[in-house]
Design goal:
Layout (H helix, E strand, L loop, with lengths): L1 H10 L5 E6 L5 E7 L2 E4 H6 L11 H4 L4 E5 L1
Parallel strand pairs: 1-4
Antiparallel strand pairs: 1-2, 2-3
Length: about 70
């Protein structure tokens, strides 16, 4: 999560965004950068009602940035 926070800060990424952080060749962590902060994607999936920025129209969903970073 620290690597994702540093990447968000260095790139100036505005929420909402989905970040994929590759820990090694076999493991990729998923995070959701929301107005409320950085959350694990699984937590967000299980508690989607807490994240109003996930309620996008079909047109807006094409504009949601996906950012990938490797360690």
């Amino acid at each position: 999560m620290t690597a994702a926070r540093k990447f968000i800060h260095s790139e100036g990424i505005a929420p909402p965004a989905l970040l994929l952080v590759k820990r090694n060749e076999h493991t990729t962590d998923r995070y959701f950068w929301a107005e409320k902060g950085l959350f694990g994607a699984q937590y967000v999936e299980e508690n989607h009602f807490l994240f109003p920025s996930l309620k996008l129209s079909d047109e807006e969903s094409d504009e949601l940035p996906v950012v990938a970073q490797s360690r």
